[in-house]
Amino acid sequence: TQLPSELRWLYLNNNQFSGTVDLTQLPSDLSWLDLNNNSFSGALDLTRLPSPLYTFYLNNNQFSGTVDLTQLPSPLQYLKLAFNQFSGPVNLTRLPSELPFLRLDSNHFNGSVDLTWLPSQLSVLQIDSNHFTGTVDLTRLPSPLYVLDLNNNS
């Protein structure tokens, strides 16, 4: 089923929807997508999201695979990928420059995490309850940052 091209906000949260999601089929002018609290699964391609996307909530599903955060839409303000089954390394050095809110907690992300090139407006970063390892440089954090949650990693 094709979504209407005029659609700007799509709320499918708090249902029991399941199956995979093809993000490449979203309307090109979509600015708000909320899929929280469902049973969606499968891998996601985050490299071709609608360019005006401002809010993107995927918490509490069963999405899996790796995620590429290097080509997110520049207007993006809220990205929540928490409580899924995502895995692999995560590049936080090429996030949208104005992104203030990022939740990647409670997944299976691993590898080292570079916090030296975070967006200058970032105020919330939750990457707890994953499998990140290594040393973390906390000397170049953005000044608006008021929540930094790294607990329960390797």
TrEMBL record:
* InterPro entries the UniProt entry points to: Leu-rich_rpt, LRR_dom_sf, StomDev_PlantInt_Reg
Question: What is the protein named?
Answer: Uncharacterized protein
Q: What high-level taxonomic lineage is stated for the organism?
A: Eukaryota, Discoba, Euglenozoa, Kinetoplastea, Metakinetoplastina
